[in-house]
Amino acid sequence: MPQTTEWKILLAAIAGTFMVILDQTIMNIALPHIMAVFNVPTDHAQLVISAYLMATAITTPAAAFLCNRFGTKRVFIFSQASFLLGSILCGISWNADSLIIFRILQGLAGGLLTPTAMTLLFLNVPPQQRGTAMAIFGIPMMLGPAIGPTLGGYLVTDWSWRMCFYVNVPVVLVAILLGFTWIRETPTMPAGFDFKGFALAATGFSSVLYALSYAPTWGWDDVRIMGLLVLGTLSLIVWIVMELRSAQPMLDLRIFKNRGFSMATGLNFVTTIGLYSITFLLPLFLQNVRGLTALETGILMLPAVFGAIVTMPLAGRLYDRIGPKIPVVAGLIVVGAATYWMRTVDVTTPDNLLRLMLFVRSMGIGLAMMPVMTYALASVEQKMTAQASSIMNVSRTVFASLGIAIFATILTNLQKTNLALISQTLTPSSSETMHFISMVQVILMQAGQTLEAARQTAVYLLYLLASARAAVSAFQTEYIIAAAIISIGVIPAFFLPFGRQQGTQAATPMD
Predict the structure, then answer these.
(1) 3-state secondary structure 230-283
(2) Which are the contacts of 43, defined by CB distance < 8 A and separation ≥ 6?
(3) Helix, strand, coil: what percent of the chain each, to 5?
(4) How many CA atoms lie within 13 A of 165 on its CB side?
């Protein structure tokens, strides 16, 4: 287990990143209230979420340079202070536009925090304890998406949407205090800033993420989406070419020549899809199909945290003792099997059975996720740790957005297709249709409705029933797709090393 010094670093890192991750999901619940308060349409209000996400992707690639140039402690504390300022400003926003601007400030700071905290932790923990430390660090990465809807529902219902920002203040203040008190500075390496690389990366990642955020709503063939994707793709291609040719790149992409890092990045895609597919799909199902409130949905999904809390420390110990292969393979198998099990979920599935499915699935994610991240950082030289952390975090943001956009699009198309197929069988002359309408008509007429009113109500109820059946079938298909993607990741996981991972030597902090 980590020693006293490492525990202090770990606590400071967790306190510094938890609210950043939480803020990515908590606003989903507050968005309808913000729309009502500021009287703005959905697309405009959606920028409250999208602007934050795009801002994090802009600064994450620059985290490595800033840590090397100014020192990890300074960047960590500066990012915390900026995030605190952004949170306070968001809380006092007077209209939607001011809120979006302050969310950008909050996101710019948040984009630096996670890779900086990971770098700080990795460089201060001995190689033989990194698996355990990173596993504990990963718990808030699971807690944030899981408790965000629950906490957001409570704050919005019983307090105000502004509390979704003010709740950051005490936690971030503690993180700043811990950073000043416990963290020692790392050595700096003077270097020039790659302005062209930063501009290209910022344009590329923000354009792609903006397009992915709105593609399910506007449609992938919308000229705005296609234009953003073309702009983003071209910017990233030019950026990659420039970075590979530069003597002092902002992000040294030659790191992908490292086989272990490249493999870990691919597995990072699988574990991200595994985490965010259900985090995205299940709340939609529970609220839109089963009719639960946001708070009820959040409470029902809490077991998705507890399973990971159980297995993450175990995965860390296994990594320290026998390497990443066993926990990652076992974790992906469990996640894939549990996700495939969820294909049986419908409106009649008991809550306790659904909780069991989420708990088992969460255990698998807890086994697989952090060993992949730890192995990625351990695969590179010490001087490349900040680079590896930045790349892993920005890729995780892009993978999550890509996965959500694809799943949202497939879900919409499946619902339309399923409803069309079901409608073909529910013709006016079909026995099923006639039986349902007759039964409902009798009940409604006994309640006092006229024949025509009862018939119209029965037809409407039949449409709602068909829509619900189409939606359930669409969600079940999505779970199968997610399970297939996760299961494919088992194959490269078998090529991970087996045995104790020595990794690189820890950095020597400066007094």
Answers:
(1) HHHHHHHHHHHHHHHHCCCCCCCHHHHHCHHHHHHHHHHHHHHHHHHHHHHHHH
(2) 214, 217
(3) 85, 0, 15
(4) 26
Q: Which two tokens stand for residue 27?
A: 């606003």
pTM: 0.77
Tokens of 156: 């919005």
User: CA–CA separation, 311 vs 325, rounded Å?
Assistant: 15
Q: How far is CA 290 from CA 147, 356, 479, in A?
A: 20, 18, 17
Structural domain boundaries in the chain: 4-193+250-416+472-493, 194-249, 425-471
Q: Three-state DSSP class for 350?
A: coil
Could you write out the DSSP letters of every residue in 356-382?
HHHHHHHHHHHHHHHHHHHHHHHTS-G
Q: What is the pLDDT along the chain (511 residues), one digit of tens a residue?
A: 445 566 777 777 777 777 777 777 777 667 777 777 777 776 677 777 778 878 887 888 888 778 878 888 888 888 889 999 988 998 888 888 888 888 888 888 888 888 888 787 777 777 777 777 777 777 777 777 667 767 777 777 778 778 888 888 888 888 888 878 877 777 777 766 778 888 888 888 888 888 887 887 788 888 988 999 999 899 989 988 888 887 777 777 888 888 888 888 888 887 787 767 777 788 778 877 888 776 777 778 777 778 888 888 888 888 888 888 889 899 999 989 999 998 888 888 898 999 899 899 888 888 888 888 888 878 877 777 777 878 887 887 788 777 878 888 888 888 888 877 777 676 666 666 666 666 766 676 666 667 667 767 776 676 777 777 888 888 889 889 888 888 888 888 888 887 665 544 433 333 3
Distance CA 180, CA 74 (A): 9
Element (H, E) at 477: helix 451-488
Specify the DSSP class assigned to residue 289. I
Q: Among residues 137, 464, 461, 453, which one has the least CA distance to residue 288?
A: 464
What is the crossing angle of helices 130-158 and 303-322, to 10°? 170
Secondary structure (3-state) at 398: helix
In this structure, what token pair is assigned to residue 244?
Answer: 């590979």
Give me 78's structure tokens.
């500066």
Question: What angle is formed at CA 149 by the lines to CA 264 and CA 57, rounded to 5 degrees?
Answer: 40
CA distance 113 to 137: 13
CATH class of 4-193+250-416+472-493: mainly alpha
Residue 127 per-residue DSSP state: G
**Core vs surface per residue 428-442: b (16+ CB within 10 A) or e:** eeeeebeebbeebbe
Q: DSSP state, 61? A: G
